[in-house]
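Entry 14. Structure prediction run on the chain below.
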Amino acid sequence: MKPTQLTRKLKNSTLPETLTIRLHRAISWLKSAEKQEDNLDLKFISLWIAFNACYAVDLNGISSKPEKAKLRDFTSSLVQYDRTRLYNLFWEKYSGPVRVLIENKFVFEKFWEYNRGEAENYLPAFNKSIATALNCLSKENIEGLLEIVLERLYTLRNSIVHGGSTFNSKLNRAQLKDACNIMQLLVPIIIDIMLENSQHDWGEIAYPVVK
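Output returned:
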C-alpha cells in the first residue's frame, strides 16, 4: 500500500488521537523514503524512522524495557492481528532480499563483537541464526522470523546512525538495498494493521504534540 493510500485511509478513520499522531508521523517518513530512491542511506533512515514512529512509546512506560523487548512486544501484537499478511510477505521475499540479508554477516551483531575482540567466534551463532530463520519460515513461526530480520535491520541501523559507516559508501550497498526492499514493503503493512486495529492499545507517544 502506497503512502498516499495510507494517508487517505487515515483521514477516513476515527482513531484515538495518539494513534492518529503516531501513524501520521510514520506515513510522513514513508513519503520521505519515496523521495530518496537515488540515495539508499537516506531512504533507509527514513524507513527506519517510519518504523520507529509506529512502536516508540512513552519514555515513562514500557521504554524502561530493553529495545529488543519493546520490539518483541510490538511485533507480537502485529502478528496477533494479521499473521497471514506478514507471513505471506516473508514467504514471497525469502528467496530474495530476506534470505540475503539474513545470510549477510555484516548485519550480524556478533560479527562486529568478534571484530572488536569482544567474542572469540561468531560463526556458530551466525550459522545457528540462519538455520533458525529457515526453520521459522517452514513452521510458519512469523514471530521468530520477524525478530531475526529486525535484529539484522537494527544492526544496520546502528552502524549508520552511530557513525559507523561512510555516507554513500560502496561497502554497504548490498545490505542497504536488501534492507530497503524489505522495509518499504513491511512498514506499510505494519501501519495498515495498526489502522485496522485501533482498539488495541499501541501505547502513548513519547513526544506528543505540544501547542
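The first helix runs from residue 3 to 11.
Filed with the rest of this week's runs.
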